[in-house]
Fold each of these.
Amino acid sequence: MDIKKPLTFEDQVKRLVTHKMDVSNVDFAKRILAEVNYYRFSGYALQYRDKNNPDDYVIGTRFEDVWRLYQFDNELRCILKVHLDSVEIYMRSQIAYEFSMTKCSGPPYNQHYDNTHFYNKASHSEIITSSLDREKENNKDALFVIHHSDKYEGKMPLWVIVELLSFTNLLKLYSAMYHSGQDAIAQNVGVTGQVLKNHLHCMANLRNKVAHAGRLYNALYNPPVKLGSSYLQRNPKIKSNTFFAYIIVLMRKLPNKTAKALLATTIIDTMVQYEDCIHLSLLGFPVEYVRLLCDEIR
């Protein structure tokens, strides 16, 4: 079976019109599709599909409305980028500090290279050898890499290594630890080891969406977030596999009250700015989302 043939930007606009989207300015539509790609753009039009004929859009669907949803999503990504960076840096510090103080406090201070201190030895070896070597090669011009190469034959303390690892590999390193080590780190951020592992997994996935301009609005979120049974019982409208649930976890992983307040404020302001075109349900936001976000500022 042949796949769909490529279309010119003009033909892409005609395709949208054929499916009953209202395009009032063809030149504007062509420019936007050239900037963001037809397939990406059409993902934001899913909420406008005609339930009786899914190939078409409901009558009155305007190109500008879909473009506004795209802009909303883009603003969300810009907001999240700053706060995900904060969480990532914070968790690098927490993981490196707790493990180093527990396992590397005596000479030769390099026990993080010894897989006897890790439950999943294969995963540890893959990260601490091939993944780390690859990152050192990618960052060979960085001054701290040159310093450790010249003075310590390439060996690094764990608090240096975590600056090279991707967030995904940081999660893998944490997951490779014995449960006692995971719990000690998790206790410092107020959760259990299993919960922190879940939260880091969720944040890594959210970070990948943001980094690769993935759609946040009307999208799937896996794995479901562990928010705690008592919290979910008090707030039964919150679903664990939604954008809102991921925002709650992001707030809980931020290192201080000021960062939490900034995230809550900017999310709320953006939601209000675009309330004319978004559906709360497609983000998993309950009606009382303002109160719930403000409750997390503590």
Amino acid sequence: MGIYKRGAVYWARWTEDGGKRWQSLGTGDRREAERLFDELRAGGQLTMRSALSEWFEHQEARCKPRSIHLYRIVRKRFTAMWGELQPREVTTRVVEEAQETLLKLGRGPTTINHQIGIALGAIAWANERGLTDAEPPRWKRLKVRNGRARKYLTPTELHNLLKTAKKAQWKRLETVVMLSLYSGLRSDEIVWLTWADVDLEQGWLHVRSKKGWSPKSSTSERSIPIAKELAAHLSRLPDDGKWVAPQSPGKQWCRRHLGTQTRKLFRAAGVDDDGPHTLHRLRGTFATSVLRGGGDLESLREVLGHSVLSVTAGYLTATSDSKRRAIRGARFAS
């Protein structure tokens, strides 16, 4: 048996039942690694620190950067809360305490449910591979307030948002807002959109893979017609040969920082809390506008880059509500 360093993390190596086994110790600190190694030699059980670390390394080689970013947050957060526990010690009560802690930190119920589900999935992963005989506990998800939150902005909210985005303080976000609102692009698609992807003469935006980034799925690689409002805006922008919506000239947005600034813009514009303060809500506004204008669901699916029609159909709810109101207000001859 022994420990060795692979990259920034120490690993333990030993022989068991005539075969060699390796286990990440989940730390770059040699003293901590030696302590964990001593636990293994003494027959110590797998800890959540090690389970989360091994699970993360398994996922890191198989998932896209966007998922890896989330998994890294989950590993760090639950290693801090559960790291010294054994998987069997993660009980329903422990999960409830984690929910209470995260609520106090200001995390939303949806985020908490999602991250706890991922963390408990690491226990299931370790169980499947014989690293532990424990199974994830039964737990109750937090209730999500306003689970059917409005996915689009009202005309007044949209007017205020566009007006605010033109102010000097928020000017760098104006193109981001226009691209999301008039083409339905996702935030990472906006971050990676270059002038080589824009054909103003023919009126198309092209979402395609490039070095360092690839779209969410194969159906996300697509071409989107440029609306006249967006074409007018893009034609006024300086073409620096690289990013269409940079944070500053020649500098690409960090997706996380863009999300933070977007939320601040929404609040500055006075957009209420009936829905998320994210660019995805502008994507929803785009989809709702297309359907209200008579667009068909299949064409919208292709424009949004959805893999299946059922996801696109989620935007039908808003238009269905307006149709119900219209019928209720109708007056028929008797």
Amino acid sequence: MGDNEEAKPLTTVWILGAGFSKPLGGPLLADMLSPESQQDLRIRYPDNPHLKSRAESCVRRIYAYGHKSPSRHHADKAKARLWEHAEEFLDYLDAAAKNANSPAAKRIAVLASMVRATGEPPNDPGVEELQTAARRLVAAECCAFLDGADPETEKWQPYREWSRSLNDGTNAVITFNYDTVLEHLNSGVVVLGDDDYREARKSKQAPIFKMHGSVAWRRTADGAFEHADANDFALTCADSELAIATPGPGKASLCEELRETWERAIQALKTADAIVFLGYRFPPTDASARSMLLEALRENKRPHVDVHIVLGPNVNTADPMRLEHLAKCALEMAGRWELGPEPEPGDADGTFKVRKHPLWAEDFFTVLPALHTGV
């Protein structure tokens, strides 16, 4: 393949979040660490020592305690919670682990003592051990829903059709998910370095950029990443080999180690004619990603950019409206103007169009051929 062919723009970039995997059983980050997930993991992996350790039990008890209202006398019970959902808890726990002398670390230590089960010894797991256990639980939940999954079943059909459409040399996938749905679908080439990227472009397969790591990667002793032998590698690997960027200060460190992946993904956005946000909403713990993706939108040099937002049937809720406004602001800051419902001939230079689709991911895949023909 010549340099000119490799330089051709990837004209459609798909940005995937947890909502992409949810119809297949994938967990939303905010819903993790629930009692239901604990039961499911113990049934699926009864002999896994990582998932039945004292630290694992302590993490779940601390999360449950802080998620409920610790002060029965508080007028607003929601405000009495230490964390509203698992995403906030993971962020808090990671921050505590980064500084053992911080108020957050001291509070976690107090909570570990408070939720100690009857008969347990007083030497509670340390905050770093708890943070590692929490990351392992997140990884396990991202593996569990694919345990025994059959991509040939009916619920996977829209995903299979979408996956087949990717490999024409014009698509790229940016995913913030840790799971291996894309690998199960054989959707393209997961990029970890130059060889993977060259393979994707040469074979016209979609390059897949995993921005926050993967349960199928190994983190090496020198801070590099490599493809593991199994899609559920995170279930059995050493703690130091976990390669997922969970919420908290540690996420920035891992993303910095994935700088090459981020740079390639951002470059793809800058040359895209169409960008599809599919189940990705710019969660509060993704401030850095939000800044970089919106900057790439501003710096896009294509004559016209289409942005599609697919976050479910109700397009007037906070998440799709917020994402729509962020995208429009970024494009308008670049001097673009939005096309009206009936664009005039010759309106394709320096323009954009943002569309919110009242659909789930699987619905969007079903109507995708109509969108390509302008219907």
